[in-house]
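Table S2 (text version). Query chain:
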Amino acid sequence: MNGYNPGTMGRGRTMAELPRLVAVETTSRCNAKCVFCPNSALRRDRHAMAGELFEKIVEECGEFPLRAIEPFLQGEPFCDPEIVPRLEHIRRRLPRARLRLYTNGYAMGPKHVDALAGLGVDHLYVSLNTLDEGKYRQAMGLELGRTLANLDYLTDPRRRGRVARRITFRMTRLGDTSLAEQDRFLAYCRARGVRPFIVGLFNYKGDVCSTLPVPRYGCEHVHRLDILATGRVALCCMDQDGEYGWGDAREQSVLDLFRHPTARRYREMHTSGRRRSIEPCGACNNFWPGFRGMGIARALRTGLEYGAYRLACRPIGRKAPAGPSGETLAELRGRCEAAVGTAERTRAHAQDRG
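Corresponding structure-token output:
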């Protein structure tokens, strides 16, 4: 797998000691200002990952059987001028790992779509969120017409299957997303032969307001490795500034970072059912369950708790607006702008001190 030598894996190592996914932030820059994403309020500088560091990470991912790799974290991949060569490098060096790519589609014009054709992307996710022009502009700070033109080109039957083995368009369901708006999105996806995915709002460990509660069961994100553009490791994709991270990929290997004592501590807390007892997980409503490293009894309990959460909260799929308790798009935009101002002041203060 991936070019690794099974004889070098060592005795007694299990899949639980290997990351199920490595996410590499090739850039922290983004062309959107989404109200449901903390990128607009990052307290760290925005830049692309150095080529040498990127290649080091990819090479180290070839030393073990990696299931999936995502060249994405907090930025927009197509804001990285080297994204296509980086994707080609991943596919060349990690031919068996699933290659997944996330984008808002705004900068993924025909030139980029053509470059992706035949490259070997396994799953392409596009964060579309709404087909209402005014709401799109308010939610994402972009113009819908350009994105839709790009998606029309992408989903043309003559090229759709060559760009990625699977394509998913995503809608983040906000507090005032109507059923009619969701139905329009579903029909749009069906007409273009792509998979629709509607999901509730994640709260990014409390930094974004969401009505979805914090689950009791363990989260799958502790079984992945997230590397920021600087090389610094973040706890997961919800730890946008790496505040809870550990180690640096410039100085340590991918496997050493995944097996870091801090990383192991988080995994142990989640697999033993103590997610709510460790920061920041006790305030984060990410609801995807993790089963790795669990005994049968704990895994069964986690499955039952996840099923109960799905039934009670309906975090996925078509759902009526939350009503008075749900935060409107305008309110989210206000929170986002306030957070951006706070982040800018934080960065300015750090530069003055430096």
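Notes on Table S2: Residues 329-353 form the longest helix (25 residues). Residues 5-13, 342-347 have pLDDT under 50 and may be disordered.
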